[in-house]
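Supplementary Note 3. Input sequence used for the single-chain structure prediction.
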Amino acid sequence: MHKPCSKIDSEDDFGEDYYNMVLPDMEEALLNLENFMTTAETNNNEQAYEAVLEIIHSIVEYTRNSNNAYKFIKAKGIDRVIPLCLKSHNDQVKSRTLIFMKSLFDIAPTTVSASMPIVIVDLILDIFENGNLALKAHAVDV
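The predicted structure, written as discrete structure tokens, is reproduced below.
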């Protein structure tokens, strides 16, 4: 009896060319995210928040591939941008960050758990205490 070949690539793996198009340089994306967050939070700049949301979206797409998720973790992305985004005054930024964290846990649960600084746990607890219902729902998912 002939068994069908198992699918090597997951349905979320679109190939290296796709991921390089989505996010050509992880370090540059992290630096841009840090800079835009600083501008957004300092000046309550809506355009900077939009840029942050676009970068988060690109990072989420990029890290759908497990190898790229590990690249994000290795670049200290969890330490550098997750706390910064969870401290944001903008609920959309917090929401997308929580969704991104859940995605990372789905892709690389052990590595993400080991890489998670305690400050992130504190920030999630703050969301439970002070956040709106939608943010609390996303925090529960994490």
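Residues 16-141 form one domain. Residues 26-43 form the longest helix (18 residues).
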